[in-house]
């Protein structure tokens, strides 16, 4: 699939603008100025559309390259402002800090927790959890028990409600918050979801949680270019 078909700008310019927005604490207008210095005239609304299109596409394309996780999950959620109200970004990392998965939700209840765990369990790079560490959020134990009863996770999977063991995922939130806080909230749930998928994807690449057969993953520019020009 040619993701750049019918685009007015060259692919490397589009990917550069998207990468800057998802990686650094920059506004769309900041990126307009940076591109202008390079002789590229583009509106901030065009960059916004690029981010909403290529953020989710980046997340989708890196999935096949993600390294296997360990079987110890650390789960927590952080707050994201959408349309002036708080939404909840569920996130999990393994014992080594590798991203297990993430999911934006408008609610923070048993149903949302189950959706998140199902999403994490469906990813082929994730091992079946031996232990899941959560904080004192009361929705996690019943959600996990229901998944056990429905045989979606093994009965022997243990659940630990210990806040201090979750420091690793709370610290991992910091990169996401560093990028999203200057955005002053999202206008809609959909645009928040699109943007967060791109931010999380960049974060996973930066943490070197992907393996590439062709270029060093440490080269963020080359790896993203490879994903969009050579990956299926």
From TrEMBL:
Gene3D superfamilies: Ribonuclease H-like superfamily/Ribonuclease H (3.30.420.10). Keywords: DNA recombination, DNA-binding, Transposition. It comes from the Bacteria. Residues 64-224 form the Integrase catalytic domain. Pfam families: DDE_Tnp_IS240. Involved in the transposition of the insertion sequence. This is IS6 family transposase.
């Amino acid at each position: 699939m040619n993701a750049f078909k019918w685009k007015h700008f060259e692919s490397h310019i589009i990917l550069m603008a998207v990468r800057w927005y998802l990686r650094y604490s920059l506004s769309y207008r900041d990126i307009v100025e940076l591109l202008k210095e390079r002789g590229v005239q583009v509106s901030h609304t065009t960059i916004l559309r690029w981010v909403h299109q290529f953020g989710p596409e980046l997340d989708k394309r890196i999935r096949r390259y993600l390294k296997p996780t360990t079987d110890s999950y650390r789960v927590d959620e952080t707050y994201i402002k959408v349309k002036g109200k708080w939404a909840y970004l569920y996130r999990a990392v393994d014992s080594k800090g590798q991203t297990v998965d993430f999911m934006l939700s408008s609610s923070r209840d048993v149903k949302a927790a189950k959706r998140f765990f199902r999403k994490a369990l469906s990813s082929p790079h994730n091992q079946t959890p031996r232990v899941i560490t959560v904080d004192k959020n009361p929705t996690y134990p019943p959600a996990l028990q229901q998944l056990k009863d429905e045989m979606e996770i093994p009965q022997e999977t243990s659940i630990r409600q210990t806040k201090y063991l979750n420091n690793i995922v709370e610290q991992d939130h910091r990169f996401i918050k560093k990028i999203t806080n200057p955005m002053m909230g999202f206008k809609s749930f959909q645009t928040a979801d699109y943007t967060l998928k791109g931010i999380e994807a960049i974060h996973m690449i930066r943490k070197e949680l992907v393996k590439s057969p062709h270029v060093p993953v440490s080269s963020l520019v080359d790896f993203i270019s490879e994903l969009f020009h050579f990956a299926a």
